[in-house]
Amino acid sequence: MRRLWFLVPIAAGLAAGRWMPITIWEGLSDGLLILFGLLAAALVQIFPVTINFLPDTLTSDEIDRFGQALKVQQQYWMSLLCLTFFASFVALLVMGFKGHYPIMIPHVSFGVAELLSFLSGFSATAVFLRAFGIVGGVLSLQSLRTSILKKAALNREEEQRLKLQQKIAAIPTDLSFIPEGYGRIHKDDNPN
Length: 192
What we know:
Blueprint: H1 4-19, H2 22-51, H3 60-96, H4 112-170
Helix pairs in contact: 1-4, 2-3, 2-4, 3-4
């Protein structure tokens, strides 16, 4: 499954290079640049938010566990950010070459138009496929965060319970100074 995210964009790029005219990518370039820019801005915002994701009342094991999960997720986001920059660069190349594609690459059976169409199809598909993983990653981190916070809350509650038991145990239990029958409710045989 991990390789699928890379094979599908290659197949999309090959199909685009072969059968998708570059003029379609010329028309899409403006919109793709806006979309890629928004995605890059969102990714840049995710990094600082996830760093301050937990309180400082964690055990060292919980810190290690969350730190590892966060590292994996941030590497995923960084690869998506790099792909987004690459896709933006390709879109800018398509805009820059607009209408000037008769250049053929020496010793190869395709030209610049086919190459740019391949790169556009590859990069756009790669970005879109990777972008779907953002939601799953954030939800995964939130699930881990919830389990860690719940464990911390249960530990705090257990500490409070133990402290309360200690206080109760410290209360004197010698009640010999109270007269016998004090506080007892007597049932009256005659209710009237």
